[in-house]
Amino acid sequence: MRILIWGLGCPGLVSAACLAQMGHDVIGIDIDEAKVSAINSGHSPFREPGLTPLLEENVKRGRLRAITASRDCVQNADVSFISVGTPSASTGALDTSQVESVAETIASELRGTAHFHQVVLRSTVCPGFTREVLAPRLEKISGRRIGRDLALAVCPEFLREGNALDDFREAPFSALGTIESRSAEMFSELARSLPGEVVQMSAEEAEMLKLMNNSFHALKVGFANEMGRICAAGGVDPEKLMALLCRDTRLNISPAYLSPGFAFGGPCLPKDIAAITTHARSAGIKLPILESVLPSNEAHFDACVRAIRATGLRDVGILGLAFKSGSDDLRNSPSLRLAAHLHHEGFSVRAYNPDEEPGTLSESNRRVLERLLPHYDQILRPSLEAVLASSSLIIITQRRPELTLTPEMLKDYDVKVLDLIDPASTWATPSGDRACNRASTIEIRNSLAGA
Ligand SMILES: NC(=O)c1ccc[n+]([C@@H]2O[C@H](COP(=O)([O-])OP(=O)(O)OC[C@H]3O[C@@H](n4cnc5c(N)ncnc54)[C@H](O)[C@@H]3O)[C@@H](O)[C@H]2O)c1
Fold it and tell me: What distance in Å separates the CA atoms of residue 11 and residue 34, rounded to the nearest whole number?
């Protein structure tokens, strides 16, 4: 394919070199003359292991060259990768002016021409930018329609400087986000040159995935450093412990604890987070990430309460009271706390606790119930059906086979379902028509009933 790469910083130039190496005809465009001339003489303008030999080879073979201005290039190319910078503006938002300026150049060069063109945004942007800013601008200036004679996708770059060639080639997948599903097919030829499996998604998902990845990386570094400080202050070897933490690929370096859902609780996590932060404070060590974990959990609990209030329904049924599925422990259970909170707010609350009959409560659970829900015998119902029959809103806080609601079960009851462990339905915001079929408001989605 004939590929233009706009912006020859690390991700742009590494993509250019790797795509040229695959046999594509690549032109890199950058306003920085020194960069362009270094590339054309086969040298990387910045330090990146392995890049100079790759540039040298592909420049020599005529598969890669760099230019400072794109005159008439677009109409002779199949694809434009936009890889220009999106630095922080003074507000903290991303400054997308370089991307917008390149998009305007591409669109004006396309105007009045007939050659089909694909635009791939590689720069990092916030969710909504491609659909709300980039697409309308490209269409307006080019006079073309995306999905008809112009294709647009967001394909974020995940590589790390210093490791960029290996990260590009060995990427586990490439995210291909589009603003409407037809466009994805238009990228089928290019997709064969993208590393890893190509995962199709909405433009917003691709944009968010990049920010989510970098947030996770930054959080990991911050967490490791906080652990390093507190370990070292206690005379404990942080490297050794972090290596052991990473060896646990069942609970630690794994998908465990990484499903968005309801708040956490139970007898250990809140207690031990409180313990380590209190211990650190007494030693004069600041752990801002760990200090924010319990407030974050509270903010999430409050958001769930607001979503329940927003339904306008006051007869609520809660299924499962233990602190998590697979346990009957009520200590610090967020579901039980939710029941108590709603009861105190004046909701009419019913709950079904499949783990224990009210008459056979363990001593520990009875004490917890008496403290949080003194009238629990009026709230607890003996069966799932009894809760369905007396509620207008069923609140799902945990995924358990014995509490799964099927359309068949729900058809005889006049209830809505608010699934707090399905963030896609609970937290969708009023941002209009999303390609990923999300609800447009916080809505009570009786998805389990197929309504
Ligand atoms: N640096 C990384 O490791 C990395 C990794 C993944 C994603 N990203 C993202 O990729 C994007 C680019 O990052 P970067 O680090 O290469 O930025 P950068 O600022 O280092 O490089 C951007 C390049 O674009 C050029 N440019 C600016 N305006 C131009 C125009 N109108 N036409 C042509 N070229 C133009 C600049 O001269 C510069 O060489 C950013 O959105 C960044 O967040 C960066």
Answer: 18
For residue 9 and ligand 1, the question of a CB distance below 6 A is answered with yes
Q: Is residue 402 included in any domain, yes or no? A: yes
Is 38 within the bounds of a domain?
yes
Q: Which of 10, 37, 168, 211 to mutate to test the pocket of ligand 1 (most atoms within 8 A of CB)?
A: 10
pLDDT single digits (tens) 31-44: 999 999 999 999 99
From the CB of 33, is ligand 1 less than 6 Å away?
Answer: no
94 — pLDDT class (breaks 50, 70, 90): very high
Pocket flag, ligand 1, residue 7 (CB < 6 Å)? yes
Give yes or no: residues 189 and 306 share one domain.
no
**Which domain-ending residue is among 174, 207, 240?**
207
Residues 72, 77, 80, 84, Cα dihedral to 10°:
-40
| Domain endpoint, select from 147, 172, 207 | 207
Give SS3 for 188.
helix
Domain that holds residue 358: 296-449
Residue 358: other Cβ atoms inside 10 A? 14
d(CA 100, CA 129): 10
Task: Report the first-to-last Cα separation within the chain, whole angstroms.
Answer: 46
Residue 28's CATH number: 3.40.50.720
Measured in angstroms, how far is the CA atom of residue 98 from the centroid of ligand 1?
9
Average pLDDT over residues 21-48: 98
Beta bridge mates, 266? none
d(CA 204, CA 127): 5
Sign of CA dihedral 338, 339, 344, 347: positive
Task: Tell me whether residue 99 is in a domain.
Answer: yes
Share of the chain above pLDDT 70, in %: 94
Catalytic residue list: 268
Residue 274 inside a domain? The answer is no
Q: How many domains does the chain have?
A: 2
Is the distance from the beta carbon of residue 98 to the nearest atom of ligand 1 less than 6 Å?
yes
- Dihedral pair phi/psi, residue 447, rounded to 5°: -65, -35
* C-alpha to C-alpha distances, 449 to 63, 231, 256, nearest whole angstrom: 56, 50, 28
| Whether residue 201 is found in the same domain as residue 306 | no
